[in-house]
Amino acid sequence: MNTNLYPIPENEEARIETLQSYEVLDTPAELAFDRITALAARMFEVEIALVSLVDTNRQWFKSKHGLGACETSRSTAFCAHAIADGAPDVFVVLDATKDQRFSDNPLVTGDPFIRFYAGAPLSVDDGVRLGTLCIISTTPRTEFSIRLKMDLTDLASMVVEELTLRKLLIQNHKKQLSSASHDLKTPLFCFSLCLDALDATKLASSQRRILDHARGNVDLMKWTVDNALQVHQQQQNQQQEPQHQQADQEETIAVLEVVTRVQKVVKYYPKRVRILCILDDDVPKDISTVPVRLVNALINYLTNSCKFTASGEIKLRISAVDDLALGGAAVVFEVEDTGCGVQDPSVLFKETSRDGEFIGSGLAAVYHHMRVLGGRCGHHARADGKRGA
C-alpha cells in the first residue's frame, strides 16, 4: 500500500470550507461527544471509538475513547476512505491484515494495531461528509451485520446533531455580541460629545483630571466595542470569497506612537499591578505595519494579563531580532506577567467552549491579527521559573 495516496472527494474544497465553518477543529473535549464514543465502544464491544474529522492533511479526533493520540496523518486514515466518493453508507474493514489497501498501514502494523474498522460518515449540508463516527478493534471479525450498521449510523446522526447545535450556539453568541456592540456605539458617541463640550469650558485642575479620567474610560469602552465588532467582521470575512475581502493597508509608524496608543487605552483598564514598558536600544524608530491590528493585538495581550495578575507587575518589552522565518529583521513585543500562568496553552489563542457552550474568545483576536500581519504569536513560561508567562 502507498500510504501517500488516499481518495479525495470531488467536493474537497467545499467540504473543507464546510468543516471549518463548524469551528470545531482543535477545540477541547466536550462531554456530549465523549458520551457518544463511550456508548459506541460499549455497544459494539470494541476498544476504540472516535469522532474523526478529516482535515486537509490529517484526521483530528473531536472525541477519542480508548486512544491517546489526538490526530493522525490523513494518508494513513481509514476514515479518509470512509468519506470518499462512492463509499458505502458504512465503511467496513473486517480484517485489515488481509485487505490490500491497509495491510501495511502503520496503524495496522504498529500501534494501535487496527484489525477491525467500521466508520459511519458525519454527513451535513447536502451530503457533505466531514468525517466519521468510527469503531476500531484489535480483533478481526467475520461479519458486521446490517442491524449493527444501522446502529452505528444512528449514533453518527447524533454526532451531527451535536455538531449542528454547537455551531448554532456559537453563531447566536456572535450575533448577540455584535448586536450589543452596535447598540453601545450610539450612547458612547453621545457621551464623547458631552465630554468634548465640557472640555471647551474653563475647568479647575481637579475637574480637568476627572475629565481626563472619564475620557480615558470612554476610550477603553470604545476599544472594547470596536474590538468586538472587528472580531465579528473578521469572522464574516473568513466566510467570503478571497476576492471580496478587503486588504489591509500597511503604513510606517513610530514604535513610540504604537506604545502611546496602547498606553492610552490600557491606562484606564482595571488592574491591580503596574505596567512597565521596556524599549531596547536596537529597536528601529519606525516600523511598517497595519497600526490598528498591532495596537489591538497588544491591548488584548496586556488586558488579558491584567485579568490574571493579582500581584507583582506586567512588562511590555520591545526588542529587535533577526528572524529567518519572517525573512529578516523583526520587532518582538513580549508581554511578561507574574500571574497564574497558563494551564492549557493549546487553547490560548482559540475561541473556547465547554460542553457546547461558548465561554470566551481568549486571545483568538491576537492570533488573527498576527496572521494577517505576517507575524506570529506564542507563549512560554517565565525563564526565571517563577509564576506567570
UniProtKB/TrEMBL annotation:
PANTHER family xref list: GAF DOMAIN-CONTAINING PROTEIN, SLR1143 PROTEIN
Matching PROSITE patterns: HIS_KIN
Protein name (Swiss-Prot/TrEMBL): Histidine kinase domain-containing protein
Domain Histidine kinase: start-end pairs: 179-389
One Pfam family cited in the UniProt record for this chain: HATPase_c
GO molecular function: phosphorelay sensor kinase activity
